[in-house]
Amino acid sequence: MHRASLKMRWQLTLVVFIPCFAVAISGCNSKPTTPAPSAAVAPVTGPFSDQELHQFVALDPIDTHTHVYQSAPELVNLLERLNLHILNIVVARDPDQKSLDQERQQVWNFVNISRGHATMCTTFDPFLYREPSFKKSAIAAINDDFDRGSPAVKIWKNIGEQVKDPKGNYLMPDNPVFEPIYENISARNKTLIAHLADPNSIWEPPTPKSADYEYYTQHPEWYMYNKPNAPSKAAILVARDHVLENYPKLRVVGAHLGSMEADFKQLADHLDRYPNFAVDIAARMPYIVRLPREEAIAFIEKYQDRLIYATDHGLSANAKAPDAVKQWENSYAFDWRFFATADSLQYKDEHVQGLALPAAVLHKLYHDNALHWIPGVMSVQK
Q1: What domains are defined for the chain?
Q2: Tens-of-pLDDT digits for all 382 residues of the chain?
Q3: Nearest alpha carbon to residue 166 among 217, 216, 127, 121
Q4: Would 370 disulfide with which of 62, 153, 283, 293, CB 3.0-4.6 Å?
């Protein structure tokens, strides 16, 4: 009886010990995983907390894609509090040279009051390409801004989507008329920021579920679907690629993920093929946020030297600055939480989880890559 009792106790011990030991071994050999966000976990929202702000400020962050046309002290105060530097970009929106001159002056006005927190990105007017003085005048104006401290030139989507020749053909970015301008940018060791083409949805039938549906319903002038003789998106990007190939020493930053936001494989192929090409993430968070989490982390870590933080935030001349400042800060806070933490976050009607990127990758995204790809982006303006 006593021996049977001992035997039973040993059997019970082994029954308990062996599964527990197996679980322990399994736990040692597996990587810890971050639990997926749940609707039961209240998402983190709103402006930065004091602790979050301390971490954000430490990045010495740079936003390389903004449009500020109002000298708003409220915005300067926000940039100072966030220790944030912005690249303030001029856009040639229409054929009216007076409009471009006014926008250029508005951008410089804000830069001049920004207490060193803003730098100006210049441009030229492609609508004037047939004027005999086009090349000379464009380069002279660009060089004047370079001499005042501008580190970059932007070309916009109206090249490929709006500017036409007398026969009705759309002017493409690889047109020879632009060659002297590209050569000048390269010779001055400046950067070309290229917003060419747009999301796929503007060449497709209306789709309310598209991430860009609201924008194109409000701006039908950019809706290319069914426009006569409109080039395809692929044709515009091929012309952009010709510029990359023809000017290998020219640094080119493709705005908005290089307009390849819907196909990260295509974007990866371009980054692999063109060493003079990087992209900013301005206004493309909807595409990054909706990537599978592990896929997003892997992509960002692989191309950590080629991705530049940017937002496309704007402040028009007639906008209410306090409202814009609130929206800017909430946006910066969301983006930082998404990239820097594993927090549960609310993005529109979706719960998403932050990527918790390594500190070194985060610093490249927010600071180092901007300095590398746009030298002078934090220079004092003259």
Answers
A1: 50-373 (3.20.20.140)
A2: 444 443 444 343 434 344 433 434 344 344 444 555 555 578 999 999 999 999 999 999 999 999 999 999 999 999 999 999 999 999 998 777 678 999 999 999 999 999 999 999 999 999 999 999 999 999 999 999 999 999 999 999 999 999 999 999 999 999 999 999 999 999 999 999 999 999 999 999 988 878 788 888 888 888 999 888 999 999 999 999 999 999 999 999 999 999 999 999 999 999 999 999 999 999 999 999 999 999 999 999 999 999 999 999 999 999 999 999 999 999 999 999 999 999 999 998 889 999 999 999 999 999 999 999 999 999 766 6
A3: 127
A4: 62
* Contact in structure between 283 and 273 (CB atoms under 8 Å): no
Question: Which residue do the tokens 């933490």 mark?
Answer: 341
- What is the residue-wise DSSP string for 273-339? H-TTEEEE-TT-HHHHHTS-HHHHHHHHHHTTTTEE----EEE-TTS-HHHHHHHHHHHHHHHHHHH
